[in-house]
Amino acid sequence: MDKFLNDMEREKPIRFTNQQLRIATDNYSNLLGSGGFGTVYKGIFSNGTMVAVKVLRGTSDKKIEEQFMAEVGTIGRIHHFNLVRLYGFCFEKNLIAMVYEYMGNGSLDRYLFHEKKTLGYEKLHEIAVGTARGIAYLHEECQHRIIHYDIKPGNILLDRNFNPKVADFGLAKLCNRDNTHITMTGGRGTPGYAAPELWLPFPITHKCDVYSFGMLLFEIIGRRRNLDTKVAESKDWFPMWVWKRFETGELWELMIVCEIEEKTKEIAERMVKIALWCVQYRPELRPMMSAVVKMLEGSVEIPEPDNPFPHFMGGTTIAHPVAESQTYNTTSISSGSSVMVSNSSIVCATPVMRKYEIELASSIV
């Protein structure tokens, strides 16, 4: 009974003291890494549990408190195998910190950009599936939908068996399921992974995470950054380069450049199609993450994707459904070129779109 009660107590975040965390981290002597909002240290409790202690720091107390509430208020109330677990927190005058489970193999970016040959395509595919499951849980299975806003390799942590867990909920926002669109105050996310609508005057939905996952998938496919000046094809930006190979039926060139073996060719082709669907310019054309999971697992057929980058093709006008006749003249973050967004007639969803839960918005609110 004592063990049962202790287990039940651990189901909710524990409030630690500054002194407890100082002892666990050996006075913060083992640095794991640092980011925009804090520094992470390795620690171990007296019962042998290894942890990662994230100490929040920022330019103002308000910012730190917002970050703290975003993380504890989201990951602190949910449990999923593919989400990093929050053991507890400390909120004292001299220390604001979160205590997470320790992830022995660090973040995914290490294996995509620095130790490229460590993980084979089969394992990378498993990591992609697990990551998609974690995001699908946030979007579709929580009582309140949670939008992460910052899906990228650095926020996908790997345990000792290389199981992926989505981490860093500092930008996360809870969204009532009945309210499909949310209000944004300023841009969020990381350039290169952030969806176009985060920088444009359009409604923001959970589909921005789908876009970011698509960009992550491209980096898994290439085992390189999407923009890498050291690689020749980077002149085209890797996702665009992949689309051009796909459009002309020359994916064999991708297999050669990315050193993809024959045995994993089918997996790579599947991931290419899914990535192209996920990064569609129009959010309503991107699939739900639960559909992405099924596609990655190979349990459903993947329809041929449309061009996700028409807005980069020589200043092409992009048709967006809008409530009234209106035009936005905006600047594309990725290309630096002006993009015109004008009104158009609304097109009904096709059978293929309905089958794969690809939504078509009726209007912009």
From TrEMBL:
Record GO cellular component, one term: membrane
Superkingdom of source: Eukaryota
Principal location class: membrane
Residue stretches spanning the membrane: none
Membrane-related topology note: Single-pass type I membrane protein
Subcellular location as annotated: Membrane
Pfam families given in the database record: PK_Tyr_Ser-Thr (PF07714)
Keywords on record: ATP-binding, Glycoprotein, Kinase, Membrane, Nucleotide-binding, Serine/threonine-protein kinase, Signal, Transferase, Transmembrane, Transmembrane helix
GO molecular function: ATP binding; protein serine/threonine kinase activity
Domain spans labelled Protein kinase: 26-310
Residue numbers binding ATP: K54
Family annotation (InterPro entries): Kinase-like_dom_sf, LRK10/LRL21-25-like, Prot_kinase_dom, Protein_kinase_ATP_BS, Ser-Thr/Tyr_kinase_cat_dom, Ser/Thr_kinase_AS
Family: Belongs to the protein kinase superfamily.
Name under which the protein is recorded: Protein kinase domain-containing protein
Source organism of the structure: Sphenostylis stenocarpa
